[in-house]
User: Fold this.
Amino acid sequence: MQEFVEATSQAGDSSHLATARQRESQTRVINRAKELLADGTVARVLGWKAGDLPYNPEPAYFEKEEDFADFVYNGFCGANLSKYMIEASKLEGKTLVCLKPCDTYSFQELMKEHRVDRDKAYIIGVGCKGKLDIEKIKAMGIKGIKSISGAEIEDGAETLTIDTIYGEKTCSYADAMLERCHVCKGKDHVIFDETIGESKETNDGDRFTEVEKIEAMSPEEKFAFFQKELSKCIRCNACRNVCPACSCRKCVFDSNKFDSEQKANVDSFEEKMFHIIRAFHVAGRCTDCGECSRVCPQGIRLHLFNRKFIKDINELYGEYQAGADLEPRTPLTDYNVEDAEPGIVAERG
Amino acid sequence: MYKIARENLTALFQKIAAEQELYLPVRNEGQVNFGVWTEDADVDIDTLKTVKSPKDAFFPQSETLYTCVRDGKKINIEPEALKEQDFVVFGMRACDVRGVEVLDKVFLVDPLDTFYAARRDHGTLVALACHEPEETCFCKAFGVDAAEPAADVATWLIGDDLCWKPLTEKGEALTKVLSDVLTEDAQVDAAVEKEKEAIHDIVEQLPYSNLSLDGWNGDVLMEKFEDPLWDELYKPCLACGTCTFVCPTCQCYDIKDYDTGKNGVQRYRCWDSCMYSDFTMMAHGNNRTTQKERFRQRFMHKLVYYPANNNGMYSCVGCGRCVEKCPAALNIVKVIKAFEKQGGEQ
Amino acid sequence: MSIEKNEEFRPKIVAFCCNWCSYAGADLAGSSRMTYSADVKIIRVPCSCRVNPMFILRAFERGADGVIMCGCHPGDCHYTSGNYYARRRMTLLFSMLDYIGVESGRTRVEWVSAAEGAKFSETMHEFVDKITSLGKNVRLEDLRCRNL
Assistant:
């Protein structure tokens, strides 16, 4: 609690500087984008447009100079724009896309799968100091939000100051961060044409801790845990549709050729089937970008499935990070004669 | 008017549950949704909005309609029984109640949906006024009064008390059942009036409360349908069904067969979403081939088609669930505002 | 139904067998007059690599109590490398099933060549015993399939 109070006062002192820095960073992206649009390098810009609430910017295309009045890049720009590049790759001309360090992994993975066209993209790697989760802020009981300061991208503030109808509230930036940012892959963009802005180290946890905790449970406990977690699923498919790895033109779950139903919340089995198979289909290709967990309206920790596969792949077939390179062979499209036998699962216990 | 101390609410729930099923907001793994009350349920009536709306109580996400079983050379068709037990939905909000009214206009007209009608007959709605409305709320724009829900019973949480006011016959009947736990108190009225005023004050401050619906009605069908603005608006849409599944008024459903593998078929219906590629799929394919058309359908339905068929009543109630849950931060408010802005420029 | 009638528990077992080795192995077991339990239902697949993880889950959904996949020994695949890929897939899938709380004995992979009729018979006996001891699969079944 003591630290919390101190952080608040520090933020208060430097807030005017923060605003200036934010303006500078956002302006640099905007200016560069305008330049590239003007000289014809790119035909459009894919970024974020300010929302009508302080925390809901939406992915948007900018094609004209005047559109940029709404351009925003702040802590709430969590959306991974790589997914949108699949469609943008089909458009005439290049698209300038703003990618955060973790988004670049997804982009590179999509390149490897020939789902995006590198020649159609001009990548500006934007800095990131961790993205915010409005659900976490609301879970702290903060509601009636009018404005939020401290979410600006190059603001050093450790605290968010939130003005609400019910009074001014504060919370630490780290506490409001998305889960994925606590296990961030790093500050470096793996693919870019240029970078603008600094990134901050936000990693303060191990991404497999939760997985290990579940692995240590008894089968009964494991089953009860997932039963409870997955019983929340409403089959909205947000996890699938936001996932950059789920880029099939037609998903197996959308097929009416078999009796699995992509939208019916009918039986606990269907939900398990969906989530296991979805995680399996992206195994070895999932960059752990965390979008599935971010968008789930029921707060299901979907990354627990993906990370289990990642952990197994790392342990059995060697450390692997999807999207880190352009090597064509992924763990599941490759093999080794000495691979472990499936019986290892029972042996490991 | 009646009241009950907050700490005695469990007694109230027990009393209701003794004779009827009781649905109310329950917290499960961090999320609050309407669920069946049990002794160990983690009841949460302070969270303003449940993730899903309470429409499940009347129109479940999926329900079996009938089952066919082959018995030798015969096929037995066993229709699913209609709801026969009375139940209470406690803790609905004013917007949710209006949502049920919207569903009524779809399911209770000819041809009557018997499954829905049976649930409506047996259900009693106990609504809770919104003590602290949030920035995503815009019920005022749709003429809903967050301070006085139009349910069978309206309730207010004021300080340590829950104030209880029956509004219909069903509400009176329920109140009678609960006469042991409720205390009649004429002084409550003044407190409720004060609370209503406070709620109205807050509603006035909400950013969306002044949302204008000018230009949205059943007469602007082609004009709105053909508007080039849709070409831009749909772009961030990921085509998931979150908005439709959390919505208290989305009423589209699909009917499917499930082959149970052993000489049996279960026919069930489940919510459908106009965002999905197989929505209204027909033998020849789909009328709506792109996401733009699917996206447009949702808003045209809520703001144009539905009013055209229902004397101008919109099928959006301003609960703001879509505002909170859309993965791409799209929502009906942004659509309405975009048209308003375009109108201003013209 | 058998459960409700309180008869002795007979597990339902699905065996995916590759056309070139394991299916031939099963055939050999039969022509050599070796036995394997009638509870095992064989589904012939062109290669163990054809087995989609969804097949396994679907089998459980439909009421299987155990699923076993048999293919050519590593290195002997008719299509050179199919079973190597299958091996990775099944390892990961089984691990995931274990992770969500399904008893790990319910799934198994065994490599059986066309000459190993005895091994096929033995494997199936063992697997049936294992599943019988685990009892009915309730964690992955679809309730809708149970009621009819």
Remarks:
- Confidence is low (pLDDT under 50) at residues 1-18 of chain A.
- The CA atoms of residues 160 and 171 of chain A lie 5 Å apart.
